[in-house]
Amino acid sequence: MKQRILPWLAAAAALAAALPARADVSLPKVFGSHMVLQRDRPIPVWGWAAPGEEVSVRLGDRPAVKATANGQGEWRVKLPALPAGGPFTLTVTGKNTVTLDDVLIGEVWLCSGQSNMEWPVGASLNFPQEAAAANLPQIRHIKVKCIAAPQPAKDVELNLPWQVCSPETVGNFTACGYFMARELYRELKVPIGLVNSSWGGTMIEPWTPPVGFDAVPSLEAFRRQILLADPRTGAYKEGIRNYLNTLEQWIQTARATVPKGEFVPPMPAFPAELQPLTRETQPSTLYNAMIHPLIPFAIRGAIWYQGESNHWDGMLYTDKMKALVNGWRQLWGQGDFPFYYVQIAPFNYGNEDPNAVATFWEAQAAAQAIPNTGMVVTNDIGDLNDIHPKNKQEVGRRLALWALAKTYGRKEVVCAGPVYRSMAVEGAKLRVRFDNARGGLVSRDGKPLTWFEIAGKGADDWVAAEAVIEGDSVLLSSPEVTEPTGVRFAWHRNAEPNLSNKEGLPAAAFRAGTVPPIDFTTLDLPEAQGYELVYALNLAKAGANITYDVDRRAQIRRPFDRIAYFLELRKPGEQKQYLFVSMDAFTDDLAKIGVPTVASQAVFQQPVTNLQVVSNVPGIVNGEGLAGNIEFWPHNYGPLNASGVPNASAEVWDFGDQYSDPVDGYGSMQVHNPEAKQTLFAFNNWKAGASADIGIGNSDLDARTRDWTFAANAGSYSRKTLRVLVRLK
Predict the structure, then answer these.
(1) Pairing state of beta strands 577-584 and 636-638?
(2) What is the pLDDT of residue 15?
(3) Contact 717, 581 (CB under 8 A)
(4) Residue 403 and residue 338: Cα distance in Å, rounded?
(5) Are 489 and 451 in contact (CB under 8 A)?
(6) Which of 29, 450, 624, 707 has the fewest CB neighbours in a 10 Å radius?
C-alpha cells in the first residue's frame, strides 16, 4: 500500500514546488531598518499580502494598526503622528512577520534632480576631513536606483538601502542633501532622513508626472506624447485602431499583388508616437520609476538641483517647474510641502549664446512665485571649468537656511541674498534698490562691484557701469550713457559677481527697464559720411539662411563707386571693438556685396584697391589708399595660396586661401591688408550660428589660422553687428 501512495505524494510535492509561493506580507523598499520616518504628521505604511489577509502594523510599543489586503493584495495603514525620537522597531504581521530595526522619527527630505544632486560627499571638497567628522548616526540616507519606466512602477529599486551616517558610509550620500542635513541636525537636534532619488544628466520633463503637464497649457506637447504612448488612454487606442486599419489594407493589397508577380509595397511601420516611453530622456519616465513608488511616504519637503540639461529652455523652464512641483504635491497629498531648489552655477558652456544661461537663471528665479519655494544662488561658489562645482558644503548650508527660515520658523535666519526691487533714474545715473539687504549691501571681496551694465541714450548696447553701494541701493553710471533706461546684472554664463548682503549671500542675476532699439541706418563715423546703408545684420541671427535686419537694395537705384563694411563687436564687460573698411567697388551687383551665401552667387578671391581703414582694435593698420584683398565665397577652402596673394602663406589659413567644393560649404567673408599681413575682419561658417567665426585683426586662437577659421567664437560676443554700405556716384 505504501508503494502506491508514495508516487502520488511525490507528484503532489512536485506540483506544490511548481506553484507560486504564498503571498507573504511585504513592504516597499523605501521602508527598511535604520530608516527615518517623518515626525509630527500621520505616517503612511503600505505594502502587499494575500487578498483578504489581515495585516497588523506596530511601531515600538504603540498600539497596532490593522488593515485588510484588497483584491489586488494591496493594504495601507496610517500610524498616528509622533514627535522626534527612537530608535523603534517597526513590526508588520500577517501570515508572516516583517521586522525593521533602528527606526527613527525625525525630518525626512526628498533629494532629486540631476548630477549636482546625485554628486556624492566622496567627490566633494575636503572629503578626508568631512569623512572624519561624519560620526552622525542620527542622519540616515537611502539611494534609489536610476531606472526609467513607461508606467507608474509598483516599487523602487535601490542602489543603497538606508545607511547610518558614519565615516565609512558618508561618501555615498548626496552631498547637497548631507550638508543640508548636517546643518539642520545641528540646529534642530532631531534625526534627519534623506531619500536620494536623482540621476545625472537628466532633464526636468522625465521627473514630471502626467498630472503636472495636464495643468500647464504651454506643455501640451508633453501631455499629448504621454497620452499617445499609454495603452490605457483613448488616444492610444484610437491610434492603434488607425494603424490596424492601415495594416489590414496593406495585407489586402499584398495578397492581391503577389499573384501578379509584382513587388509588394513595404509594410506600414508601427507609429513611433505609440511606442512606450522607456528612456530616461522621455517625459514622466523617471517619475514613474523613481518617484511614484515613494508616494505616499511621509516627507517634510523636497530639495531639487537640476537645470544644466535644460539651460536652453529660457522662460519655459518656469512652466516646467510649475508642472513638476504642483504635480508632485498633488499626488503626494501633503499640501504645498516645502520645495527648495538650487540655481545652476556659472559655467563655460562653449560657443553658445552667452546670455542663454542668464535667461535660464531668470526663469529659475521666476519659479519662486510657486508657493512655499525658495532658490539658492550659487554664482559665487561655481567653477567655470567644471559643471560640477565641488563646494557642495555651501550649497547644502544655503538649502538649510531656507528650511530653517521658512519651514522651521527661525525668523532670525537670513536665507537669501539681495533681490532686485526697483530702479529709478537720477539724472544721468540709475539707482537700483534691493530687498534682503536690511544690514546693507557689500562687495564680498572688497573690490569694486562687477557685472552691472546699463543701457540708454548715448549707447546702442549694454555697457559696463560703475557701481557704488549706498545703503540698500546701488548707484550706476557710465560716461557712454547720458539717459539710462535699463539695467542688467550678471547677465552672462560666466558671471561671478561680487555683490552680496552682509550675511554673505550673493545677489542673483536680473534685468529691468529697456534698451533703446539699435538704429542700423546711422553711423557715428566721419569716414562713413556720404555712404548709403544697403544691409544691416545682427550676426547673432546668423544661420543657414541669412535674413538681414535691414535690406535697402530696392532703394539704391544709382550706380556706386565704393563699398564699405562696418563691423562692431562687444564682449560682456569689455569695450566695443569696431572696424570700418571701404574700397573701390569690386562689383556692381548689390546682391554680391553682402554675406556670400550660395544664393548670392558671390565668389571673390581678388585684390581690392584704395582701402580706407578705421578701427579701435590695437594693431590694426589704419589709413587710406591701402592695397587689399577679399575672400568671399560659400565654399569650403584650404590654406593653399593658389592665387599667389603677396605675403600669404600656403600652409596657414590667412589671406591667400583657395576655395573648393562643396559650394555650400564652410563659407568665408574676409577683407585683408596683405602688405601688413593682416586680416581686417572675418565672418566665416555663418551656418553654425553661435559657433560661427567672427573677428577683427589676426586671430591667435589656433596656430593653423590667422583669419579666424575654426574659431567658433560667435557666441562669446554679446553684440555683433555688420553693416554694408555703398557710396553713390
Answers:
(1) unpaired
(2) 38
(3) no
(4) 8
(5) yes
(6) 624
Sign (positive or negative) of CA dihedral 485, 488, 489, 490? negative
For the chain, which residues score pLDDT lower than 50? 1-21
In 3D, which of 314, 308, 316, 315 has the Cα closest to residue 349? 308
Question: Nearest 10 degrees: CA dihedral of 270, 272, 274, 275?
Answer: 90
Nearest-angstrom CA–CA distance, 435 and 416: 9
CB atoms within 10 A of CB 266: 7
Determine the Cα–Cα distance for residues 662 and 650; give it in Å rounded to an integer.
20
Q: How far apart, in whole angstroms, are the C-alpha atoms of residue 637 and residue 710?
A: 12
User: Collapsing DSSP states into helix, strand and coil, what is residue 104?
Assistant: strand
Q: Classify the C-alpha dihedral 681-687-690-691 as positive or negative.
A: negative
Q: Given its phi and psi angles, is residue 458 left (phi above 0), alpha (psi -120 to 50 degrees) or beta?
A: left
Contact 514, 425 (CB under 8 A): no
Residue 1 pLDDT? 34
Q: Which pairs from 692-698 meet CB under 8 Å and 24+ separation?
A: 692/539, 692/542, 694/539, 694/567, 694/569, 694/720, 695/569, 696/567, 696/569, 696/577, 696/578, 696/579, 696/615, 696/617, 696/620, 697/615, 697/617, 697/619, 697/620, 698/619
* DSSP string covering 176-193: HHHHHHHHHHHHH-S-EE
DSSP 289-312: IIIGGGTT---SEEEEE--GGGTT
How far apart CA 124 and CA 370 sit, in angstroms, is 31
Task: Tell me which of 3.40.50.12280, 3.40.50.1980, 3.40.50.1110, 2.70.150.10 is the CATH number of domain 111-230+274-416.
Answer: 3.40.50.1110
pLDDT of the residue at 571: 85
Strands 483-489 and 499-501: unpaired
The strand pair at 339-342 and 373-376 is best described as parallel
| Residue 564 DSSP SS3 | strand
Predicted TM-score of the model (pTM)? 0.81
Give me the torsion for CA of 572, 574, 575, 581, rounded to 10°. -70
Residue 645 CA from chain centroid, whole number: 47
CB 437 within 8 A of CB 418: yes
Question: DSSP readout, 106-136?
Answer: EEEEEEEESHHHH-BGGGSTTHHHHHHT---
Query: Which of 355, 39, 356, 7 lies closest to 190, judged by CA?
Result: 39
pLDDT recorded at residue 573: 67
Copy the grid coordinates of residue 524.
Answer: 557715428
What's phi and psi for 288, nearest 5 deg? Answer: -60, -45
Task: Tell the residue number behind the cell numbers 563691423, with chain if given.
Answer: 567
Gyration radius of the chain's alpha carbons: 33
Length of the chain: 729
437: its cell numbers: 539687504
Contact partners, residue 563, CB within 8 Å, separation at least 6: 582, 583, 584, 585, 586, 593, 724, 725, 726, 727
For residues 695 and 675, the answer to whether their CB atoms sit within 8 Å is no
* 603 SS3 class: coil
Domain ranges of the chain: 111-230+274-416, 419-513, 526-728
Q: How many CB atoms lie within 10 A of CB 31?
A: 20
- For residues 208 and 359, what is the distance between their CA atoms, to the nearest angstrom? 22
Give one DSSP letter per residue of 129-195, joined into a string.
HHHHT---TTEEEEEE-----SS--SS--EEEEEEE--TTTGGGSBHHHHHHHHHHHHHH-S-EEEE
Report which DSSP code applies to 405.
I
- Candidates 332, 87, 93, 62; CA nearest to 195 is 332
Extract the C-alpha cell encoding 429. 545715473
Q: What are phi and psi of 325, to 5 degrees?
A: -65, -50
CATH 2.60.40 for domain 419-513: yes
Q: Which three cell numbers stand for residue 346?
A: 556659472
